Every structure is written in C-alpha cells, then in structure tokens.
Amino acid sequence: MRKILKFGGSSVGSIDRIKRVIDIVKAAQLECSFVAIVVSAFGGVTDHLVSASKQAASGKEEYKNSLLELVERHLTAAHALIAPAYLTEALKVLETKFHELSNVLEGIYLIHELSPKTMDLIMSFGERLCAFIIYNAALPDIPQAQYLDARDLIKTDRSFNAGQVDFEKTNHNIRQYFEASNSLNIITGFIASSKENETTTLGRGGSDYTAAIFGAALGVNVIEIWTDVDGVMTADPRKEPFAFTIPEMSYKEAMEMSYFGAKVIHPPTIVPALEKNIPLLIKNSLTPTSSGTFISSTASKNNAAICGISSIDNVVLLSVQGGGMVGVCGIAKRLFGALAEKNINIILISQGSSEHSICFAVSAAYGDSAKEAIEKEFSLEMRAHMIEDVIMEKNLSVIAIVGENMRMSTGTAGKLFSALGKNGINIIAIAQGSSELNITVVVKKEDEVKAIRAIHEGFFLSKKATVNVFLIGTGLIGKALLENIHNHSRIDYEERNLDIHLIGIANSSHMVFNTQGIPLDNWNDLLDHSTEKMHIKHFIEKMQHQNTVNAVFVDCTSSQDITDHYEDILDTNISIVTPNKKANSGSYENYKKLNKLSSKKGVDFSYGSNVGAGLPIISTIDELVRSGDKVTKIEAILSGTLSFLFNTFTTETHFSETLKNAQEQGFTEPDPRDDLNGMDVARKLLILARECGYPLEISDILIEKIVPEEYLQAPSVAEFYSKLKSYDHKMSEKLLQAKQAGKVLRYVAKFENGKGKVSLEELGVDHPFYHLSKNDNIIAITSNFYKDTPLVIKGQGAGATVTAGKIFGDIVRIGLEQI
Q: Which position among 601, 684, 750, 806 bears the catalytic label?
C-alpha cells in the first residue's frame, strides 16, 4: 500500500493536534510500503501573514507586533514538540526563516507596496515553518524523515496567487526525486515556484492540491485528506445539526459538492486524482478510527436520491431581459464575454425557453462590477429599450442538492420543491444540468439555514418526522401537555418514527429557547432562572428566526394579545395548535382570514380543543361539511365547567363552594366568571356555527347569564367569590324548583335558523341532556344527513388532561403528515 497523507490547518492547529498527526503517520508507516505527508500552515497562520503584510503595505507599524506573535507561536510549538537533541539546530534554521520574513515585511513597509508576487512569498512561510517543525518533531520516532520544500519540485507559470501547474515538468521532478529517496518526506503544501524560481501559490485548497499532485505523479493507492470533521457531511453541520458523514461518493459528486461550498475538499484537488483514478479518503485527525468518506470513480451504493446538500451564501442574482434578446444570436456570448473580461466567476445560470431573460448568480463581491460590465456591453440596446435595466437582487444564497442517483430517481425535484414550499421558502431561481447530477436553487440568505434543514429532512430523514414545538402558557393545560410529550416521546420516536422537540417555552414572565431541544425534566427550573423577559413580539421574532422546519406554535393561554399575532405566525409557515378560543370567536372576518391563510401557506391551524376539550366535535362537523352535508341545528352542553357544576350542585351544598371546587380541579376557565357569564359557551357555539358555514358574529348569539352582572363585575376573582355567597340562596331556589318538577338544570347552547342562544334551562327526564355525569359535554347535530335522528357526541368535555391530550394528538398528526 502506497499513500499520501495531507493534514490541514485544523489538524495542526495546536501542539496536541500535531502530536496526534505524528501518531497517525507512525501508524501509517507500519501498514504501508510508502508514505509521504503534506502539511498546511498552522491553523490561522496564513490569514495572520496576509494581515501583517497588509498592515505593512499601509505603513502601519502594527505589522511588527503581528510578526512577533507569529514568531512566538512557532517558537512555542518548536520548544514543546522538538526533542532537545534536535532543538538547537532547528532553532537556528527557524531564526533564519524569521529573519527572512522580517526583511520582506520591512521592505513592504518602506515602499508601501504589496504585489501578488510578494504576497505569495509571504504566505509561503506558513507551510515552510509548519513542515519544518513537524519534521524535527518526528525525528525521534521516524529518524528517516526528511523535510521537502515543494517549491523545489512543483513548477507553475507566473500566475501569482493561483499558479497553473506545469505537470510535465512537475511530474518529472517528483518522480526523479523519489527514485532517490525512500525516506518519509514531510512536504510543504500550497506552495510552488515558477520556472524563474519565484515563489507561487496554488490558490484556495492549495495543500489538498499539493497532495493530489504528488499522489498522481507517484501513482499511490490512496490520497488521505485529514481534517477536523468525519469526512464529507450530508450538509454543513453548523447549519444542519442532524448532518452525518457520507460513507462513499464519486469524484463527480465530490466536485459538485465542493463547487457549491463544501469546505472539506476543493475542486482542483480532485482533478489529478480523477485522471489517475486514485481514490481520496477524507478522515478526521481528531477521531482517526472513524471511517471517513471514500471518494472514487464509483457512485455511492446507497439508495438515497442525493448524496448531499451544499450551499454558497452571500451571492447576488443579476437578471438581463428584454424583447430585443429574443431570437438574436450572440447575446449570451456578449454577456458572458463581458463578465469574463472582468474575471468574474459565474456560480449559476438560468434562462427561460422564450429567450426573453437570462439570470445568473455571482459572489456578492463581484455584483457591482458585473452590473457595470453588462450595462457597458449593452448600452446601445438599453438606450433603444431593446434590453431593460439590469436587475440585481442582493442577500441571496445558492443551495445545491447533489447525487448521481438522481438520474435513476423520479420525483427528486418534486421532493425538493415540496420540502421548501411547505416550510414557506420561496425559490427565486432554479438551474439543473442535463447530467442530472445536481439541482440548484437560489433563496433569500435569511432562508438558507431553514432551507438546508428542510431539504435534509426531506431526503435523509424522510422515514422519521420531526416536530419543533414552541409553547406559550404553562398553566394546568400547558403542564399536562409537557408531561404528555415527556412520557410519550420515546414511544413516538420508536413506534411512529416521530421526534418531538420543545424548542421554545414561555410563561407570563420569562421565556427560554434552545434549538437542540429544551429538557422536559427541568423546563420549569430553566424558566424560573431565565433572564429573558417574556414579550409576545419578542417570542414570535425569536421563534421565526430559529430557522426550524415543521415548527408548531402552541398557545395554551386564554390571551387575546397572543391570538392577535396568529396571522404573523401563520404567514411565516408555522402551524398553530391552540385551545384558545379568542381568535376563532372574534370577528368573522378574522376567523376566515386565519383559515384561508393556513390553507394558502400549507400549514395547520388546529383548534379542535376550542370546543369539547378532547371530544371530536369540530372534526366531525368539518367532515360532514366536506362530505356535502348541511347542518341545520345544533343543541349542546358545551361547558364542562357548568356541566360539572349542575351535576354536583345539590340543595345540601352551596353554589359558590361547588364553583370553587370545579376551579381547583381545573374544570373552569382561569377566571371562572368567563364561564358564568355565558361568554365561554357562546364563543364555542359561535365557532361551531362558523364551522357549519354560517357567517355569525358574537352579537348574533343571545346570552343569558347564570348570575347577575353586578356579581361578575367584581374587581377580582377573590371579591367575586365573596359576593357570590350572597347569591347562593337564589341558585338553591332555582335548583329546588327544577327538582320538584322532576327536572334538572342545564346550561344549553342552541343554534337554529341562523340564530344562537345560550341559557339556563330546566330539562325533563325525556330529554337526552338529562342524563349527564360530572363534566360531560354533549352535542346533538341535526343535518340533511341526520334529519330524523341527530348525530350525538358525548363525553368528558373539560379538564387539563383531556384538553392536553387533544393538543398532543394534533401535534402528533402534524408530525406524521411530514412522513
């Protein structure tokens, strides 16, 4: 086995990491007949050198401090890594290199000029210093090690900063050198020299390129690229926390991924390896036992339609359009020729079949230059209005899905657009090559992370659904819901492939957010110790900026202030699940607007727990209406509170005590006066009527209160209870009167002929509402399908547990719809 190992700046970024590198090299030597290594500069050193040279060119003496920092860093590493037997000689050589660097920087400082040629010379010191220190550090364990300056072998033209390799001369030099050297060579990456022996560099990813050049010239079996991640990932792990390593991929897939932003590998690296059919292995120097990513001529053997997602942020999109472009030959040649003259690289091109417009994406740094070049080239056509003004859209990102299996997979584009669409991400431009190796889309930069997560889930996690929950309200219902999620999360994950994460939570005072999920066993402590004060606008802003996919906002309050923001939430493609009736019992216009908006955005607005807690009342009515039925009459007991009250209220008890007991068991609204004034029941009846298709307002419902208004107007709940005691005798009289007539008291909601009414009534034994227990709700629905015998739904209609159960069920349903 013959191999080249390349170690990037992150792998040699510290003393401990360099020690790991030496261990990896020693292990490779035991396995292989030939090993050579290529190293980059210490992590961050190249940028430091560039900064120091720019300081010097600007006449700033700060460059001297920057130089001292670089010298100190390398001397510290030398003292820590090099054995005493080799240290004295090594320090002499290092001192010479530092002196050379100091002289070059001083020259720049004196003449205030920094040419590309000089910049290449300065940047070369990073690799030269690093390779020399590692060479000396390896000598005790690998005495046959040699330091090799790649400038002696790799020859380029005089294109400084991006030298073009003379492969004929370079390959000859490399082969000739290694015919005479069987030692372990520690080679400087990134740098080369011209035929005139001027220092040049190989451009972005140059150290990888160096490894590929040496590997191809020597015909090794594999080129290993050692970095700080476990290979090429399905997406950038900084943007998609569930990204994972791609075990194997083809050269073409790797080139596409690297072109569109994957930072583990760079396109020029692959070319020499591809031409010689030499596999690349991307490994993690921090976890050398991980398998990494194997890149060869063979495509991945997995069944996934794509192998990965890559992106480039901070791009601009320029559009050229006009009737004068249709059918005119040479437009594209002139357009792209004008850009080429300015050395502007085009990331993406899209043209309509009508030839009326062409759009293309470039790096934001070249946006203005590109626009000026086009306007200059087509100035005559623009004056004649044959071509319109160039449109430039800023703050965009390009996202590409890549994979050779796309050729054999139908519906790939559909899955991509569906994943983006259901998460509210607008596609600004699309491009797909005829090779079907990638599909590229342009989106707003602010949507990039959310888009990547949505695509990643759609393609790689499609057998598992994730729901990200944002909860406001930690009262009885909120607590019961959190307990439900906590108790069932493992079951849902294992049996339903559903993962529910609590991402944000708030009570009336504080709020907490965690994109990785808030622990459900101590959410209360986190809220109590949170320094973030609760404000609904801030909560919603943070929720929207979390960039989570399949987000669900859960409102477990009775707050009008929160429902006022439902439109903003739905408009950003976040589903809502709520028992809060305020939104749907407000104006009919708002009710319709929210339902239309949720439909338009493709998200859920689930409020089944608005009426009947966990009973399937709203869903049943919706199914009847969808089936073409028309509801003509509703008669119902819709308040679990009042049902409990009048089922437990006896002539031996006081009405105020019975009400207090109901509140303590969680059967009432937070303020029990909302139950006794009939408004809660009226709101529920109003919602049902609207679900049946009737455009009612709350003013269309006649409300008879259970107790006089003067009691309901008490300044506080405590004072209300105090006053209510004086009305106990009146309620006892009503109950006694009904009992003597063989009847019971029930607070009944009725809707018929477009009119609604809620009132306290006496019902006899022959009425279906007579036989109720505890806090049961019951509804009788008369419709065209159910004329003679009403459809009856009956069951427990109040309580935090059943209400939370319904909310939890809605969350699960939304999650399973993603699979």
A: 684
Considering only CA atoms, give the Rg of the chain.
Answer: 36
Of residues 516 and 302, which shows the higher confidence score?
A: 516
Q: Give the model's pLDDT for residue 261.
A: 66
Rounded distance between C-alpha atoms, residue 549 and residue 440, angstroms = 20
Q: What are phi and psi of 144, to 5 degrees?
A: -85, 5
SS3 261: coil
- Residues 6+ away with beta carbon under 8 Å from 547: 447, 449, 450, 453
> DSSP class of residue 533?
B
pLDDT at 86 over 70: yes
Q: Is 787 a catalytic residue?
A: no
Q: How far apart are CA 188 and CA 135, in angstroms?
A: 11
Phi, psi (rounded to 5 degrees) for 327: 75, 5
**pTM for the full model?**
0.74
pLDDT digits (tens, 9 = 90+) for 670-704: 788 888 999 999 999 999 999 999 999 999 999 99
What pLDDT, on the 0 to 100 scale, is given for residue 692? 97
Which of 75-89, 296-310, 485-499 has the highest average model confidence (pLDDT)?
75-89
Residue 46: CB partners within 8 Å, gap ≥ 6?
9, 40, 123, 126, 190
Measured N-to-C along each axis, helices 617-626 and 679-691 cross at an angle, to the nearest 10 degrees, of 20
HEC secondary structure over 36-99? EEEECCCCCHHHHHHHHHHHHHCCCCHHHHHHHHHHHHHHHHHHHHCCHHHHHHHHHHHHHHHH
Instruction: Specify the 3-state DSSP secondary structure of 466.
Output: strand
The count of other CB atoms within 10 Å of the CB of residue 762 is 16
Q: Is-contact 387 325, C-beta < 8 A?
A: yes
Q: CA nearest 213: which of 182, 228, 192? A: 192
User: How far, in Å, CA of 606 to CA of 200, rounded?
Assistant: 64
In the beta sheet, which residues pair with residue 359?
A: 319, 350
642 to 238, 647, 653, 773: CA distances (angstroms)? 53, 8, 15, 11
Q: How far apart are CA 341 and CA 336, in angstroms?
A: 9
For 600-622, how does the pLDDT look when each residue is reduced to its tens digit (9 = 90+)?
998 999 999 999 999 999 999 99
